[in-house]
Amino acid sequence: MNHNSNDTQAVKLTGEDVAQHNSKDSCWVIVHGRAYDVTDFLPEHPGGSKIILKYAGKDATEEFEPIHPPDTLDKYLDKSKHMGEVDMGTVQQEVKEEDPDEHDRQDRVKRMPILEQCYNLMDFEAVARRVMKKTAWAYYSSGADDEITLRENHSAFHKIWFRPRILVDVEKVDTSTTMLGTKVDIPFYVTATALGKLGHPEGEVVLTKGAKKHNVIQMIPTLASCSFDEICDAREADQVQWLQLYVNKDRAVTKRIVEHAEKRGCKGLFITVDAPQLGRREKDMRSKFADIGSNVQSSTGDDVDRSQGAARAISSFIDPSLSWKDIPWFLSITKMPILLKGVQCVEDVLRAVEAGVHGVVLSNHGGRQLDFARSGIEVLAEVMPVLRERGWQDRIEIYIDGGVRRATDIIKAVCLGAKGVGIGRPFLYAMSAYGGPGVDRAMQLLKDEMEMNMRLIGASDVSQLNPSMLDTRGLSMHTATVPTDTLGLNVYDPLVGPKEKAKL
Amino acid sequence: MNHNSNDTQAVKLTGEDVAQHNSKDSCWVIVHGRAYDVTDFLPEHPGGSKIILKYAGKDATEEFEPIHPPDTLDKYLDKSKHMGEVDMGTVQQEVKEEDPDEHDRQDRVKRMPILEQCYNLMDFEAVARRVMKKTAWAYYSSGADDEITLRENHSAFHKIWFRPRILVDVEKVDTSTTMLGTKVDIPFYVTATALGKLGHPEGEVVLTKGAKKHNVIQMIPTLASCSFDEICDAREADQVQWLQLYVNKDRAVTKRIVEHAEKRGCKGLFITVDAPQLGRREKDMRSKFADIGSNVQSSTGDDVDRSQGAARAISSFIDPSLSWKDIPWFLSITKMPILLKGVQCVEDVLRAVEAGVHGVVLSNHGGRQLDFARSGIEVLAEVMPVLRERGWQDRIEIYIDGGVRRATDIIKAVCLGAKGVGIGRPFLYAMSAYGGPGVDRAMQLLKDEMEMNMRLIGASDVSQLNPSMLDTRGLSMHTATVPTDTLGLNVYDPLVGPKEKAKL
Amino acid sequence: MNHNSNDTQAVKLTGEDVAQHNSKDSCWVIVHGRAYDVTDFLPEHPGGSKIILKYAGKDATEEFEPIHPPDTLDKYLDKSKHMGEVDMGTVQQEVKEEDPDEHDRQDRVKRMPILEQCYNLMDFEAVARRVMKKTAWAYYSSGADDEITLRENHSAFHKIWFRPRILVDVEKVDTSTTMLGTKVDIPFYVTATALGKLGHPEGEVVLTKGAKKHNVIQMIPTLASCSFDEICDAREADQVQWLQLYVNKDRAVTKRIVEHAEKRGCKGLFITVDAPQLGRREKDMRSKFADIGSNVQSSTGDDVDRSQGAARAISSFIDPSLSWKDIPWFLSITKMPILLKGVQCVEDVLRAVEAGVHGVVLSNHGGRQLDFARSGIEVLAEVMPVLRERGWQDRIEIYIDGGVRRATDIIKAVCLGAKGVGIGRPFLYAMSAYGGPGVDRAMQLLKDEMEMNMRLIGASDVSQLNPSMLDTRGLSMHTATVPTDTLGLNVYDPLVGPKEKAKL
Amino acid sequence: MNHNSNDTQAVKLTGEDVAQHNSKDSCWVIVHGRAYDVTDFLPEHPGGSKIILKYAGKDATEEFEPIHPPDTLDKYLDKSKHMGEVDMGTVQQEVKEEDPDEHDRQDRVKRMPILEQCYNLMDFEAVARRVMKKTAWAYYSSGADDEITLRENHSAFHKIWFRPRILVDVEKVDTSTTMLGTKVDIPFYVTATALGKLGHPEGEVVLTKGAKKHNVIQMIPTLASCSFDEICDAREADQVQWLQLYVNKDRAVTKRIVEHAEKRGCKGLFITVDAPQLGRREKDMRSKFADIGSNVQSSTGDDVDRSQGAARAISSFIDPSLSWKDIPWFLSITKMPILLKGVQCVEDVLRAVEAGVHGVVLSNHGGRQLDFARSGIEVLAEVMPVLRERGWQDRIEIYIDGGVRRATDIIKAVCLGAKGVGIGRPFLYAMSAYGGPGVDRAMQLLKDEMEMNMRLIGASDVSQLNPSMLDTRGLSMHTATVPTDTLGLNVYDPLVGPKEKAKL
Questions:
Q1: Where are the alpha helices (DSSP H) in B132-221?
Q2: Are residues B54 and B144 in the same domain?
Q3: Which of C41, C193, D126, D283 satisfies CB 3.0 to 4.6 Å to D142 for a cystine?
Q4: Per-residue pLDDT tens for D157-182?
Q5: Would you call A154 and C283 a contact, using CB atoms and an 8 Å cutoff?
Q6: CATH number for position A66
Q7: Is residue C431 a contact partner of residue C439, using CB atoms and an 8 Å limit?
Q8: Residues D257, D352 within the same domain
Q9: Mind listing the GO molecular function terms for this protein (chains A, B, C, D) (predicted)?
Q10: C-alpha distance from residue D47 to each of A436, D81, D308, D313 (Å)
Q11: Which residue in A has a C-alpha nearest to residue D445's C-alpha?
Q12: Which residue in chain B has the smallest CA separation from D159?
C-alpha cells in the first residue's frame, strides 16, 4: 500500500498526457489519481487485456477498486511503470449513458427494508438481490453448471430431522465451543470468500469487525479485495484469524505467503484442494457478457478466447498438479495447523488423517466448482461412522461448509460430529445490503436461533449434541420424481375452497 | 373478574385527567372504562413497554382485550393502581387513519361465503385467512423458522395409505371411544391454543360450547384470552375439561393453578414439555412489525431489543429448568392424571412410562417451536411397536396432535395406536370466521367424515381399527428431490391438449 | 317404459290445472308431457324434496331427464298418481335468466376442436372439461375428499417402467384376449359409471354401440340414466354385457334384478363391495350448491340436512350390512360368474378365492369413495405374488380399474397378471364431447397404442406379457418430499438461457 | 443425384403445361426446376397422397427439400416419369397468405442472441425453440406419448452424484479415448438423427464437418435429408463414420446398403432394434395438423387414415419381424463391427454377447418410441455389474445415448463403464440456430467442460474414471410423490422476505 511512492514528483500529469496512451501499443490507466503504464502487463492480465484496454488513457478506478487489493499495483507492477500523480481536474469526465437497470436499482435501494425487518439469514439475501449491482450479485450468487449442487447444499439440511429430548434443564444454554484450540461463542466461522469490495466499499475488513464482535474466527481469503495485511491490521488484540490458501505453482511464493501469515499471527492454514481449476459459473459469465456486450458486438470470436484466457490465466496461478506428495512439505514450512479445504469423500478423509494434517473441511466450494458434488453435510454423515469405527474421530477436526442458513443447520452438523461450520455468502449479503450493522445482526440472529434451538432440542451445552438427536434416513437419497405428467396436470381441476359472493 | 371493585367511587375521572399521565414517568391507561396506573409495571410487561406507551393517557381497551384475560389487571396490578371509573363521554375519540388493508378486509367480510359452503376443515381456514385481521391471522397461522414442520404435520398423514376391508357389516358405525376414562363421541379433543379473542370476541368459551354439543373434551390453555374460571363456568353439567399447563418458575404459583383446576373439576393435567422457550415465528414477527411500523421507523435499534425482551420475559414465566426430577412432585400434588404434552421420540416415551405419568401427547406444538421436529403421527409410528414389544402399550394413553384436518387423519392415528388426537387451529379458524356455528359445523363435518370413512375402511367400531389397515412404508422418508433443473425446464415445451378454434 | 298407460284419457290437462298443485301439500310436476302427483313421494326422494318443490306445478323434464331412467316413474310411482297428458301449449314457458357461465360454455362449444385433434384419451377430457355443463363435469370428474386417490390412480402407472425386449418378431401383433370366457379385441372393458345422460342425451347406449364396434365388453351400471332394458336392447346379436350391482337391503329386489339380468343374457355379475355408503365428493357438492344457490340463500340450515338426507336415502337403498356371509346366497341365485368389485388388499382377495367367487376387480371406485385408498394397479402388484406362491393364480380372474389412460397402462396391468382393465371416465368424456364418434375414436386410439406398444415392448401376443418386462420398484412408495423451502425459493434466481437482443 | 438426366431436351416445359396435371388422375409436381409425374406414386407415398396433391401442378420444392434426400426421385421414380426441365419464369408465383406465426418467428430470428451467449448445450435448444419453424421444432423435440421417457433421459443423470478425489495431479488432462478402435478426442459421437434439413438447408453434412473439426465420429442416419453418399463425400481424409441402419423387409436392399457403406469406408454398423414400428409423437402430430389444418377442415375422417397410412407405410419399409435369428446373417455380410442400437435390459445385453455382436447402444431412441422405457444410463447401471460378474465386460463395447447435455453426463457414463455416449438433438439445435459455427461451439463447450470436470473429479485420464467416483443410489427409483394437496396449498401462505418500503 505504497500509493505515495512517487509523491516527490513536483509536476502532476494532466488528463491529456494520459489520454495519449490509449492503445495496446502504449496503454496507461489512472487508478486513485495516479497513472500507470500497463502496456507490458496487458497479455498477462488474468481478466484479459480487453477489459483494461476499455480504460486505456482513462480513469479506471471504479472498475479496478472492487476486484484488486490496493497493494496489487505495487506488488505486480514494477515501480518504473508508476508514472506519477495526475491532476484529476484535468481529466475529462466520462459522461455515462443513462442505464435504466441502474436507475431501477437506485430506486430499490431507496426502498430498502430497514435492517430490523430481516429476521433470518435468507432475508439479507432477499434484500441483497434487489439492491446489489447485477454483476456483483451474479458473482456472489452463481454456482457451477446447473447450480444443482449450489442448491443441494442448503436442501440437504432439510432432509435431516430432529429427535429432540424433553425435560432437560436448559435454563442456561452454552453455545460456545473450541476450534483448533480457540474458544468461540458459537460453532461457526466466517469462511473465505473472494472480492468483498464488490458488495461493500470497505471489503473484508467489515467481516473482521463482525467476527470480533461475536467472537468467531474469520478465515482470510487469498482472493480478497483487501490486502492480506489490511485484513490482519483490522484484527483486534486477541482475535483469531485463519488463512485460506490457493497454492501457487511457484512454491517460493507459496512459502512466502504461509510464513508471512504465520508471522502475522494466523492460527490455521486451510489449503484449498477442490479448485485445481476455477469453475465455470454461467450466471456470472452471462452477467459479465451483458455488462460489456455493447463493446464486443462485432467480434464474435473474441468472447471464447477471453473466457479461455481467464481460465488459463488462473490455472497458471493455481497449481493443478498439487497432490498428496506435497503435504509433507507444507507440514515442514509452518507450525500452523494444516487443514484441507474441499474434501469430498471418506476415502480422502482417511488419507488426510494418515497424511498427518490437523483437519479437513468437507466442502464443495459453495457449489461453485463441480456440479453434482455432494453437500458437506452429506459427506459428513458418510465420514463420521467410518472414523468412529476406526477410533480416529479425535485425530482430526472436521468442519463443513455450504448451505448453512439457520442455527438448526449448525446444530445438525455438530450433532453428526463436526467441530463447526463455515458460513460465507450470507455474511456477504448482509454486508452488501447493510454493511457492518448487517453482519452484526446476521450473527446475532444466528446466536439467538442457536440458543433457542438448543433449548428446544434439549441440550444445554454443545457437547451434548449427538447423532441420536437426528433422523438422517432421508439424507443420501439423490432421487428425482418421475417427470411431470403435463397432459394430466393440464386436465385436472385443482380443488378450491369456498367461493366468495360476487362483488356487488 | 372483579371489574366492580372500585364502583363505590362517586366521582368519575375525565378523559383529560387520564390524558395527563401520558409518559413513561406517569403512565395511565383506560381499559373497559376504568383507569389504571401502569407506570411501575412498564418494565415488567412481557410485550415490552413500547406497546403500552402507545396508549399512555388513552383508551387501550381494543388492544388490551384479545391479548389479556379479563382478570389480568386484578391479578397482576395492585389495587392501589386501579384509579377508578372514567366518564367515557369525556374521552377524546381517536380519529383512526383510513387503513386500506382494513377497508379491503371489511369488503371481504361482506362477501364471505355462507357457512354451508364449507365442506371440510380446510374451507374454514380459507375463509378465515381472508376475513381475519392480518395480525390475528399471522399469530394463529405462523410456525417456527421455515415452517417446514408446520406443513409436515399435515403432509405426514398423506404418506399413510389405507388397506380397507370389504364385506364387513357396517350398517351401524360407532365412532365413540374413551379418553382418560371419559366417554366421547369421536376420538378427538379440542387442544389448547392461545389468545382465542384474536379470532372471536368471546374467545375460548365458544369452543367450550362446541365441545359440549359434540361431546368431546376441551383442553383449557394457560394462555387463554378468557380467564380459566370463565372457561370453567361455561362448562355444562357433566362436561369434561382438561388443563394445559406451562410450568411457572415459581412452583407455588404452579401448585395453586393445579389445585385450583382440580377443584374446578378438570379431569386431566397436560404439562407442556416442548416449550422451555417460546419459538420465534417470523410470519408473526413480520406482521407485528408492519402493524406498528409507522411509529418506530426512526429507532432502528429498538426492535431487536423488544423481541429479545419478549423472549426473556416469557422465559422468566415459563421454567426452562423443568426436568424429569420434577415429575414426582407433580404426581404428589394432584389426583388428576398427568400427561406430558410435546414428547417427540420413543426414548422419552419409555422414560415417561417409567416416571409413572398417565399418558403423553406426541406433538411438536403445531410446528411453532422447533422446525424440523417430526410430526406426531410419525413419532407415533416409531413409538407403538416398541411399546408393544415390551408389552407396555396399555400402561399409558398416547395422544397426538398437529396437522389433523380430516377424519381419515384421525382414523390413521387410531389405527396406529393413539387413543385420540388433538385439534387446535381448525376450530380457531372456524370460530374466527363463523363463531359458534362455525365450530359446530366443523365438528359435525368431522363426525360425518368419520362415520363414512369407518364404513369405507370396514370398521364398525373404533376398537376394530388396527395397524394392518394401513400402509405406512412411505411415512418416515424425509427426503427432497434433487433441485430442479431450471435450465432444462426452461427449454421444455410442456404438452398441451387440443387447441380450440380461433375466436371469430 | 309405459308412457302410454293413461293415453285413453280424452281430455288433456292444461298448464293451469297443474300449476295449482305447486306446494308440498299438493305437488304435481310435468315430465315428458304428462303430469304426476308426487306429493306423497316428496319425503322419500333420495335427492331431497327441495329439488322437486322447485318445479312444483311446472315442467320438470329438463332436470328429470339426465338423472332418472325413463322407467323410474312407472317403477316407483303408483299408477294412481299418473295424472294424465298435459296440453303443453298451455304450459307457461319459464323465462330463464341469462346465465353468463352458460353463455361462455356455448361459446366454447362453438370453438371445440375437431375430433381428429384428439390424439389420446386425455384430450377428450380436456375438451369435455371445457364444453360440459359445470354440474355434469363436477359429477363425473370429482373424487373423495382431497382427490388424492383420484389422482394417484393414474399417477401409480407412472411409477412402473418397462424392460422391453428387442429382436422379437412382432410383425403380427395380436392384442386380443378372453374375459370370463368371452373373446375380446383388447384387454379392456367399459366399466360401469352412473348418469350417462349428464354427458349425452342418449346416455349409456352410446357406450353399448362403441363396445360392439370394437368388440369389448360393457358393464351395465345400476345407476344408469337409461333403463337396464334399454341398454340390453341396444346390444347387438353376439355382444356381451355384464351387470354391476349395488346390493339392495331388500334381497327380493336384488334377486329380481339378478335373475332379470341373467335372463336378458348378462354374462357376469359384478357386486360392488367398496360402497356401503356413497362417498362425499366435495367438488360435486360445491357445484350443486352453486347451481341452486340463489334459491336457498336465506335458509342456511337447509343445506346440511339436504346433504345428510341424500346420504341417508342412498344408504337406505344400498345395504351397508352386506358381508361375506351373503356370498353363498348370491352363488345360489345365479349361474352368472360372480365377481367382487372394489377389493383393496391381498387378504380380501384370498378370502374371495376361498368364498368361491370367480373373480375380483381391484378398484377404489375411481377415487370416489375412500381417499388414500391405494390404486388398483398397486394392489395388483401386492396380490399376484401371493397368489402365485399359493398356486392360486388361476382360480380367479383379476381385473383392475382406475386411472387407465394409455395402452401402456393396460400393458402394465396385464404384465403384472390382470386379465384386463376397466375404463370408465375417459369414455364418458369422449361421449360428452363428441358422442358416438368420440367413443369410437377413443377406443381406436387405445387399439393403435396397444398394437404399437406391444411391438415396442417385444410381445406379439398378450400371453407373452409378463412381470419381467416391468420395473415396479418405485410403485409402492407413498411418500411426499419435505415441504418446500418457500423462503429459499424466494431468493433463488433460476437460471435462464441466453437473452434476446432488445426489440428495436 | 442425376438432376441432369433429361437435360438434352431442348424445349422447356412451361408452368401452364404442368398446371394442367393438377389432380389425382394426373398429378405432376415441380422440384428444383424439373417436372415429375407422380400420379402412380400417390398411393405409395409414405406421407400420404394428400400432402402431394396439395402441390399438384405446382412447384413443391420448398416442401420437398427438407424431407427427402436429393437422390430420392432418381431412386424411387422411374425415369419415364421425369418430365423434363421447367421454365421457372413461366410458373405462377404462389401468393402466400401472411402467416402471423411466421412473422413473429422472423422477428425472433432478428433478435437472436449472438453465438457467444450460448454457454452450454441447453442454450442452443433455447434459441432453436424460438427461431425454428414450428413443425421442424416439433419434429426434433417431440417424444412418445406423455414424453416421460424423453425427460427422464436427462433427469436420470441428475440422480447420479459425484464422489470426487482431491490432491490428484491434474495439470495435464487427457479426455481422449477409443471407440471401436478409432482414437477420438472425447468420449462422445454424433448419433444418427433424421431429417437434418428441417433445421438447416445443408443438412447432415454440417455435422460431418463439426465431427471432423473436433475429431469425433459421426453416425450416418438412414433417414437423413442428405443422401448417404453426400454425407460420405463430406468426410475428410482420415475421418471415421458409422452407419445407422433400419433393416428393410427386403434383405437384398439391406445387403446392398450395408455393402455400399462398407465400401465407402464406414467403420461400424449400428442396427436399430428399438423401432419395429415408428413411435407416435403427439406433439409432432399436433404441429402437422395445425400446418395443413385449413385444407382439411371439412373431411374429418381423413386425418385418421392419413396417420394410419403413414404408420403402415413405414412399417412396410422397416421390418418388424427382425429377430435374433437374423444376426448371423448380418455377421456374414460385412466385416464392419456390428452393434445393436436400442438394447434396454441386461438380459438382451447378455444375449447380444452370446450372439457375437461387437457392441450395444443402451438407448430408448431419444424417448421417441416407448414411453416409460428406462434411460440408457440407468440400464447401463443395471448391465455393467452383471457383465463384470461374468467377466464379460471386455467382450463388447457398451455405448449409451439419450439426455446427454453436459460433460458431467459423459463422465458419469464412462465412470459406470460405457465406452462413450451418443449425442443427437443438441447438435441439431446448435445447427438449426447457428449452423456450422453453432455445432463447433457446442462441441468446444463440451470439451471445455470435460477437461474442467475431469480435473475437478480428480482424473487426468479417461481410464481413471471408475464407479467408485459415483453415488448412484438414487438412480433406479422411479417414484412420484403423493399427489399434491391442492386444498392445503390453497390455504397456506408461503413465507416471504422483508417487504420494501412503499413507493412514494
A1: 134-141, 148-157, 205-213
A2: no
A3: D283
A4: 999 999 999 999 999 999 999 999 99
A5: no
A6: 3.10.120.10
A7: yes
A8: yes
A9: heme binding; L-lactate dehydrogenase (cytochrome) activity; metal ion binding
A10: 71, 20, 10, 8
A11: A304
A12: B482
Residue B95 falls inside a structural domain: no
Say if A476 falls within a structural domain: no
Interface test with C, best of B147, B153, B161, B486 (most C CBs within 10 A): B161
Domain co-membership, A324 together with A437 = yes
Per-position DSSP letters for C404-447, written without gaps between them: --SHHHHHHHHHHT-SEEEE-HHHHHHHHHHHHHHHHHHHHHHH
Is the separation of the CB atoms in A76 and A46 below 8 Å? no
pLDDT tens across the length of chain D (504 residues): 344 444 454 588 999 999 999 998 999 999 989 999 999 888 877 667 887 888 899 998 888 887 788 888 877 788 888 999 999 989 887 777 778 888 999 999 999 999 999 999 999 999 999 999 988 999 999 999 999 999 999 999 999 999 999 999 999 999 999 999 999 999 999 999 988 999 999 999 999 999 999 999 999 999 898 999 999 999 998 999 999 999 999 999 999 999 999 999 999 999 999 999 888 888 888 876 544 333 332 333 333 333 433 334 444 678 999 999 999 999 999 999 999 999 999 999 999 999 999 999 999 999 999 999 999 999 999 999 999 999 999 999 999 999 999 999 999 999 999 999 999 999 999 999 999 999 999 999 999 999 999 999 999 999 999 999 999 999 988 888 888 888 888 878 888 788 877 765
Among residues A90, A110, A140, the one where a domain terminates is A90
Residue A97 lies in a domain: no
**Cell triple for A244:** 485460506
Average pLDDT over residues C286-296: 49
Contacts of A120 in chain C (CB under 8 A): 487
CB atoms A372 and D487 under 8 Å: no
Catalytically annotated residues of A: 246, 274, 365
Residue at D224 is within a domain? yes
**Cell numbers at A16, concatenated:** 491529456
Domain boundary among A73, A90, A107: A90
Number of structural domains (chain D) is 2
Q: Could you say which of D126, D158, D474 has the minimum Cβ distance to residue B490?
A: D126
In this structure, are residues A157 and A414 in contact, taking their beta carbons and an 8 Å threshold? no
Quote the CA–CA distance of B245 and D462 in Å, as a whole number.
Answer: 66
Q: What is the CATH number of the domain that holds D229?
A: 3.20.20.70
CB-closest option in A290, A474, A488 to C154? A488
Contact A39, A24 (CB under 8 A): yes
Residue A327 contacts D, CB cutoff 8 Å: yes
pLDDT (tens digit, 9 = 90+) per residue, C88-100?
A: 989 887 777 777 8
B283 touching C, CB under 8 A? no
Question: A316 touching B, CB under 8 A?
Answer: no
The answer, for C324 touching chain B at a CB cutoff of 8 Å, is yes
Low-confidence ranges of chain A (pLDDT < 50): 1-7, 9, 290-315
- Per the structure, the complete domain to which residue D253 belongs is given by 123-294+303-471
Q: Which of A110, A111, A148 sits opposite D158 (nearest CB)?
A: A148
Smallest CA–CA distance from D249 into chain C, residue = C171
In this structure, the answer to whether residues D67 and D129 fall within a common structural domain is: no
Cell 395527563 -> residue: B20
Same domain assignment for residues B213 and B349: yes
CA of D103 vs chain A CAs: smallest distance (Å): 25
Interface of B with A in 365-394 (CB under 8 A): 369-374
Grid cell of B390 as nine digits: 415390551
ipTM confidence:
0.89
Chain D residue with minimal CA distance to C145? D487
Do D207 and D342 lie in a common domain?
yes
| A251 and A317 both lie in a single domain | yes
Looking at the fold, whether C351 and C221 belong to one and the same domain comes out as: yes
Nearest residue, CB atoms, C119 vs list D126, D274, D282? D282
Note whether A375 and A364 are within 8 A (CB). Answer: yes
